[in-house]
Amino acid sequence: MNPFVAKEIFDEKRNADQYDAVGITLASPDVIRSWSHGEVRNPETINYRTYRPERDGLFCEKIFGPTRDWECACGKYKRIKHKGIICDRCGVEVTVSRVRRHRMGHIELAVPVSHIWFLKCSPSRIGLLLDMTASALDRVIYYEDYLVTDPGDTPLKPNQLLTEAEYQDYFEQYGDSFEAIMGAEGIRKVLSRVDLDAFMKSLEEEIETTKSKQTRKKITKRMKVCEGFRTSGSRPEHMILTVMPVIPPELRPLVPLEGGRFATSDLNDLYRRVINRNNRLRNLQQLKTPDVIIRNEKRMLQEAV
To answer: How far apart, in whole angstroms, are the C-alpha atoms of residue 5 and residue 248?
Structure first.
């Protein structure tokens, strides 16, 4: 579930002693897609009759590579002489099975979700950037309150929270002249508008004029987060996930036990829950289901992540 990744990955042709350090930074949705060899749409792992990976599932051979060296899933191509060929029947590349140790997949999320580290860890990185309390963030992320993303020609203020009743009152009064969004989608929209250089400049001016120790301490924390984004080259909106990376299957294996049972990593159950809820939400969106049900499904997807 983690969007972090090492910026520099050891090249097999180079000696590890040539590296002084490994830099870690946030990954953008495009970077996550570039790592991936395919989208995982099926929550299943393996077929318990054939013991072969399910297509488009969490152990799919088409995405992560073959389970047997130099053999595609359907058996049309076998042996090393077919190296590099992608089977026209099953879509599996003929290569060594050890590629399943490093090939990744991804899940295209039906709605943006907040990464839990940046939401729940104290102090909340999202909260520091937006100057919002943890409880206020929770109410927005878990679809209880609306976040004003564009006040327009109304008395509303940017990043102001509105309850359902307040939102309906303002909507009846002002119509589409303002914008307020629930969930991580609203948070992402606000974060995407943050100009880090201008934000840092305003914080520097603010810390010079304030005398309160508590306020100075808070501003210092906000400056530290802002400077972290500036030096790493990452964007604040990347704290909100629109694409979720799926780690290689060999790092979350299914281990056969006696009696036909399997021991599995907890990660597989977590991924399965995300995929199930994501697929259900997509189906409900296509069926034009009432907003109350859609909102509940979005909250459940956020909780799964």
So the answer is: 14
- Residue 294, CB-side half-sphere exposure with 13 Å CA sphere: 14
Residue 263: HSE in the Cβ half-sphere, 13 Å Cα cutoff: 3
Tell me the residue range of the domain where 166 lies: 112-242
DSSP state of 14: S
Per-residue pLDDT reduced to its tens digit, 47-78: 988 889 999 999 999 999 999 999 999 999 99
Query: What Rg, from alpha-carbon coordinates, does the chain have?
Result: 23
CA distance 303 to 273: 10
Which one of 104, 126, 154 terminates a domain?
A: 104
Which residues have CB under 8 Å from 226's CB, separation 6+? 129, 196, 199, 200, 203
Last residue within a domain, chosen from 224, 242, 260: 242
* Number of neighbouring beta carbons within 10 Å of residue 77: 22
CA distances from 198 to 3, 195, 203 (A): 26, 5, 9
pLDDT for 2 equals: 43
At a CB cut-off of 8 Å and minimum separation 6, what does 302 contact?
A: 113, 114, 141, 142, 143, 183, 184
C-alpha to C-alpha distance for 297 and 115, rounded to whole angstroms: 17
pTM of the entire predicted model: 0.88
